[in-house]
Input
Amino acid sequence: MQNINDYNFNNKKALIRVDFNVPLNESMEITDDTRIRAAIPTIKKVLNDGGAVVLMSHLGRPKSGPNDKFSLKHIVNRISELTETKVNFVDDCISEDAITTSSNLNNGEILLLENLRFYKHETAGDQNFSRQLAKHGDVYINDAFGTVHRAHASTAVIAKFFPTEKMFGYLIEKEITSVNKVLTEGKHPITAIVGGAKVSSKLTIIENLLEKVDNIIIGGGMAYTFAKALGGKTGNSLVEDDFIPTAKEILEKANANNVSILLPSDTVAADNFSNEANKQTCSTTEIPDGWMGLDIGVNAINEYSKCIKNSKTILWNGPMGVFEIESFQEGTKQVALAVVEATKNGAFSLVGGGDSVAAVNKFNLADKVSHVSTGGGAMLEYLEGKDLPGIKAILG
Ligand code: AMP
Output
């Protein structure tokens, strides 16, 4: 494996797997170009060194073959604006014409290949398809963190055709470094904040974290399965009865591992799921019949903030309540502010996983934490301790 920063791309053709799966509106205009912007440092490194760039990506989920709605031609101009370089485009990713075009590419030029997923071979991880794709470059760079948990042709299988000339781009490198700063090199005390709707979807993460952190703060809907496991009354709150035994096991294991699990002492309960609902704050284990817990209460906010501000390493995955509704956003907002303050005081903070990322964006705090992960599913699997095929393929 090579390191992008030390590598000299002069006279090299770099085949870069990017994640340009950007949202498009009905007029095929990009509504959020964050993912393109995120790949610019890697592209610029190759161009500035005097190399050429061949970009490959997927866009959407085309069912059967080429479909104009999912064509990457719609994003050519934006890549060109952001790189300040002309971007050439070929309407296929493995045709002879595509391969001739990339082999004629000059240093300083960019070529974008058509959507990889117009071939079902991409998601199937097909060998021949990977071999054909590999013809586009002398060097392979994977900078698509969002798909690193997939064993697809362009994200994993292709790496074997570049036995030595393969590396991560800056984006993936930063994601890996950030997770490692929490899970393997984290300074203690390490606190994980785990929220979101259901305990079932966060079980593997919590189990993995029980081996690595000092505190686990629980919030969101999953808190009520724990509250019921402790014998509490949870009213109409979201409870997964099937997971009550698992919640009990987690509490026991935490105890055995000397990990503090913090459950919300109080809850903002509502009489219906809307911004106009009547609200009351009550103990999380004494929620009246007909009421549901939709946010953590002020005591929980204070306890959680104290724990967060005393931490040197913080990982946050999942909101503390239904933050999308203004009436129930306070817990998530205050926890975000505590993470920001801890970061200001020198803690390392990583926000990873879809909805906590949406929350820090909503409160305009994304640039006040150490790292916000771009890869929802990939980050979740990484935090679960799974081997990610796209990472293994480069390291192996
Ligand atoms: P997840 O994708 O599992 O992280 O869940 C995020 C979702 O959980 C968000 O859409 C929140 O609105 C929702 N959520 C957070 N707290 C609660 C709660 N107390 N009851 C129901 N849903 C919640």
Summary: The pocket of adenosine monophosphate is lined by residues 196-198, 201, 220-221, 238, 293-294, 318-319, 321-322, 324, 354-355 (CB under 6 Å). The domain at 176-383 is CATH 3.40.50.1260 (Rossmann fold). The mean pLDDT is 96. The chain is about 35% helix and 15% strand.
